[in-house]
Amino acid sequence: MRLGEVPMDGSGWWDALLGTGTPSSLHTTVLWEVRIPRALTALAAGVLLGWLGMLLQTWFRNPLAGPGVLGITSGGSLGVALAVLTGVTMPTWIAASAGCLVVLLMIAGAAKRFASPVTTLVFGLMVSYAVGSAVTLLQASASAESLQTFTFWGMGTFGKSTMWQAGSMVALVLICALWLVRRSGWLDTWTLGEDMARTMGVPQAQFQGELLLLSGVVVGWVTSLCGPLAFLGLATPHVHRFFSKARSHRAMMGGVAMWGGILGLLADGVVRVTDAVASHWPLNAVLALFGAPVVLAVLWKRTHDWS
């Protein structure tokens, strides 16, 4: 939090943080209105998406499942596209939240008719493709200025959150932690297979409903504040598994949260360093550099195991 366009030495940083001595008003404003919300947002987004990746990989029993597989992120993109590309005056975080909510309701309604999580996954992918097509059509007829605004939003950032928005992300982390602790038994049982889980008393409909609601809220809020982040939720659980053999979800919670927070802060640090040298790297590009090798390693290992 000492890096940026406004330099702070150690004593100036502590004075601005604690309000001791004679802190600079500029340092206090930059720290509490820009850098602390940004750091909290990066940390909370990493934790939330890491946990969500772990949950969806368990639910779909697919190591390549991630927070974007249900199409909810695409709904946020459509909401922002409708607001920005058609000239509607609306904050992007409100437009993204509305788009995510609409897609979540569609998937929740459709999931009641599907007997298998895999069918829900396919439905979410089809919704994502359809929404992506709609966004492309909007882009084709948009002005250059609005198209540039939408493109910058799609690159992702942790730096647009206010303190109350960052605080809401932290509160959402606490809610997800409580749900994970409460449902860790169901999650562990689900890894044994759908039939075994139902035999052992896991209510599939309730479990699916809670998981979809949690996924929609988390993805919708993170997307609305940070943009459509790539790879963070998909890669984080695998990074944890590289360093830990624990497979119980309650045991994995802490490690996944730690690595999610580290990756989020590290990616944001790279973005800020490149900003300082006037060579801006988009957040999603940095996340792809971190996440793509992890996905390739998973594919390589699975292919080797199958052979």
Explain the overall architecture.
- The protein has 307 residues and is mostly helical.
- It contains 12 helices and no strands.
- It has helices spanning 10-18, 25-59, 72-85, 92-111, 117-140, 144-154, 163-190, 194-199, 204-226, 232-243, 249-276, 283-306.
- Helix 2 (25-59) crosses helix 11 (249-276).
What is the β-strand count?
0
For the residues shown, what is the average pLDDT? Answer: 84
* Total count of domains: 1
Helix amount = over 70%
Radius of gyration: 20 Å
* Protein structure class: mainly alpha
Distance between the termini: 47 Å
Q: Please, what is the CATH homologous superfamily?
A: ABC transporter involved in vitamin B12 uptake, BtuC
- Overall, the morphology is globular
Give start-end ranges of low-pLDDT stretches. none
Strand content: under 5%
Largest sheet at a glance? none
The CATH class designation is Mainly Alpha
CATH topology: ABC transporter involved in vitamin B12 uptake, BtuC
Number of helices: 12
Order of helices and strands: HHHHHHHHHHHH
| CATH hierarchy: architecture | Orthogonal Bundle
